[in-house]
Amino acid sequence: MTPKNRYQNRIELLQGTLDLLILQTLQWGPRHGYGISNAIRANSGSVLQVDTGSLYPALHRLERSGWIAAEWKVSENSQRVRVYRLTAAGRKHLAAERSRWERLSVAIGGILNPAKRESEA
Question: pTM of the full predicted structure?
Answer without folding.
Answer: 0.81
